[in-house]
Specification:
- Strands 19, 20, 21, 22, 23, 24, 27 and 28 form an eight-stranded mixed beta sheet that branches. Strands 2-16-1-15 form a four-stranded parallel beta sheet, sandwiched between helices.
- The protein is of the alpha+beta class and 675 residues long.
């Protein structure tokens, strides 16, 4: 849709871009072999220095024509207009009558937006020059569409124009058609003037040489040019035209392939006669200051006669470029083919990613990066295909709109693929962070897999929370019920720990391990107090989660918590293909042993001496809106299982752990009795 909108809204800019890139096709694929069928006789600066400034005398021009005829030229074509009669015209008139060269005339064309259709005169006719007498119109009853109407002309004077009429001679127009950038890429095949049709110089030359006197316009089929000029005798290939009746100039021959001979060499007899024998001769000027220079795909300044030389040789070879009427079908087919390739690339990339998830050593292909590159490659392939058709078959299909569609599609696909990848990565990260601490998951997501130890030593506070008697409960109750209890406990524990700035490090059976100030977390100066507050709140929350009273024959489910503060190592360990995240060290062991002692010591929360040192003697807690204050209770020194040094163990006083007393109802007010 974007491509269609741009093709309509920015059509001139796209056509200009296509034309400029088409110029590169001509330059890259130009043939450089000598063209000997058409020889250029150039009135160049060297000739002006030798013969004299232009305009030369009419006898001098007549002598040039005689010299060329004497060397056996097959046809002489003049890219020169003689608008005014002169006293010395007799020699030129006689030479023209003897040799029957093709004469030139030029029409003044109004801008396209001001030029009326058909053969009606334009509104600016009185503003444009009208000199000489136009000659050699085609034998058409009128000048039909699509040919444009001239608003003025510069033609040969009447006596010379009379000699340029069939059957003695012909005259063709040399009217240029410049694009907005000044380069000549087209020439009107026929120009309308006062209801009559006048052919271009190249067309008149070929008609003169072949004796083809009757040509007519013909509408082309789907795979033909929009219009064609067809001869009655059919001795020449049809001349394809565009919708405006213009000839697309095929700049397929490099300017150096045309043999150019200075006019002064012809006049002085220095030109090799064998070069001209049987050849056509195009006489024009490339001299600076004679106003016959044009811009071509090969450079900003070139002789105007090169355009006519290209038109003539391309028509003789049947290689005049044209755009088929059904070119849009080819463009659609090329676009769909390129889009199919992009879709196949997307499918292959996504399937490769799916396989990479299941294969240990598979490498993922970044489709987000490949798609724009592939789109650029498809656009380049479209240009190459366009260039191949143009150089080989003279078919100008057009490639900018399909290339634009493919590039936009590749960017759209890449954006969609990027969005899909981002969503997948976000989903994977959410899953990863649900199994690992979120800071650890975020850190791992930014790192490549590694088999090295990635760990750091930090001052942490650790809390173990374990449901006592849960194994017997699981044995006696249905699995669904036990799973529901465990799920409720894990969910509540996660919320409580996160509210107090901690991270659930692991779920171990019916226990949790929570860490404050752990790996990749921001520094928490009060992590010990936060951990203790979390333990108190978790104990309070568990009273409403764990079944109470216990099922018959079972010990009640109770929560035991062990906390300690100290040094611990946190990080990832194992092979790159299978790793685990651990928090390890003496602090973890102490907290684990403390939670195991909660049942024996009849205290639900036990803390080590490291945490007791951090929080101090006085504890102030707030639970359910009630604030309490007490001191940690020393339980003595114990040799914990697996450790060599005894450790002082403290307990949170039962006064802080008891549920708040229910609120007493307000005393009833006795009714007032009458006295």
């Amino acid at each position: 849709m974007v491509t269609a909108a741009l093709a309509l809204w920015a059509a001139p800019a796209l056509h200009a871009l296509e034309a400029r890139v088409g110029d590169a096709v001509w330059r890259l694929g130009a043939t450089r072999h000598d063209e000997r069928r058409l020889i250029v006789v150039d009135i160049d600066d060297r000739s002006l220095q030798a013969i004299g400034p232009w305009p030369w005398s009419r006898p001098t021009v007549a002598q040039l024509l005689d010299k060329l005829a004497a060397m056996g030229t097959g046809l002489q074509i003049l890219d020169v207009v003689f608008t005014d009669p002169r006293p010395d015209d007799d020699a030129l008139l006689q030479a023209v009558q003897r040799h029957r060269p093709v004469l030139a005339q030029v029409f003044a064309m109004a801008p396209p937006e001001a030029s009326p259709p058909g053969d009606a005169p334009g509104h600016a006719a009185e503003q444009l020059p009208q000199a000489g007498q136009p000659a050699s119109p085609l034998d058409w009853p009128s000048c039909p569409a699509p040919f444009a109407t001239a608003e003025g002309h510069l033609a040969n004077h009447a006596q010379l124009a009379a000699l340029g009429q069939p059957p003695t001679g012909r005259t063709g127009h040399i009217t240029p058609s410049m694009a907005h950038d000044g380069i000549v890429r087209h020439q009107p095949a026929v120009v309308c003037w006062q209801g009559q049709a006048y052919p271009a110089l190249g067309l008149a030359a070929v008609m003169q040489a072949t004796g083809e006197n009757h040509i007519r316009p013909q509408r082309g089929g789907l795979w033909d040019a929009p219009w064609s000029l067809v001869g009655q005798q059919q001795v020449l290939p049809r001349l394809p035209l565009d919708e405006q009746g213009n000839i697309r100039i095929g700049w397929r021959q490099h300017p150096s392939s045309f043999i150019s001979v200075p006019a002064s060499d012809v006049l002085t007899g220095k030109a090799p006669a064998e070069l001209f024998k049987g050849a056509w001769v195009l006489i024009g000027s490339s001299a600076f200051g004679l106003n016959d220079s044009i811009a071509t795909p090969y450079g900003p300044t070139a002789s105007g006669l090169l355009a006519h030389a290209q038109i003539i040789t391309a028509w003789l070879d049947g290689h005049t470029p044209y755009t088929p009427r059904a070119a849009w079908l080819l463009q659609v087919a090329a676009t769909l083919t390129a889009l199919g390739l992009l879709a196949a690339l997307v499918w292959r990339a996504t399937s490769t990613e799916a396989r990479a998830a299941a294969t240990e050593n598979a490498r993922q292909r970044p489709a987000t990066l490949l798609l724009p590159v592939a789109g650029l490659g498809c656009a380049l392939a479209l240009w190459v295909a366009h260039a191949g058709l143009l150089l080989h078959s003279a078919i100008w299909v057009g490639w900018v709109v399909p290339a634009l569609a493919v590039l936009l599609a590749s960017l759209a696909m890449a954006s969609a693929e990027h969005l899909r990848t981002r969503l997948e990565r976000q989903r994977l990260f959410q899953h990863l962070s649900s199994y690992l601490p979120a800071p650890v998951a975020a850190s791992l997501a930014l790192q490549p897999p590694s088999g090295a130890i990635r760990a750091q030593l930090r001052q942490v506070t650790v809390m173990f929370a374990d449901i006592r008697n849960f194994s017997a409960y699981c044995e006696a109750r249905p699995p669904e019920e036990a799973a529901a209890v465990l799920h409720a406990f894990f969910s509540a524990a996660t919320q409580v720990v996160q509210q107090h700035g901690g991270v659930i490090e692991a779920f171990q059976g019916d226990a949790i391990l929570a860490v404050w100030n752990g790996e990749d977390a921001p520094h928490q100066p009060d992590h010990a107090n936060q951990a203790l507050a979390s333990a108190l709140q978790l104990l309070e929350t568990s009273r409403s989660l764990l079944p109470d009273p216990a099922p018959a024959g079972l010990e009640p489910l109770q929560l035991g918590l062990g906390l300690e503060t100290g040094q611990a190592t946190a990080g990832s360990f194992g092979l790159a293909s299978r790793r685990t995240h651990l928090v390890m060290g003496r602090t973890i062991t102490i907290a684990n042993r403390l939670v195991a002692m909660t049942g024996d010591l009849a205290h639900p929360i036990l803390v080590g001496e490291g945490l007791a040192t951090q929080v101090g003697a006085q504890l102030d807690t707030t639970l359910n809106g009630h604030t309490s204050s007490a001191q940690l209770e020393s339980l003595g020194t114990f040799l914990l299982d697996g450790l060599r040094v005894p450790h002082h163990v403290y307990a949170v006083p039962m006064a802080l752990l008891a549920p708040p007393p229910p609120a007493e109802p307000a005393a009833a007010t006795p009714p007032n009795h009458p006295a």
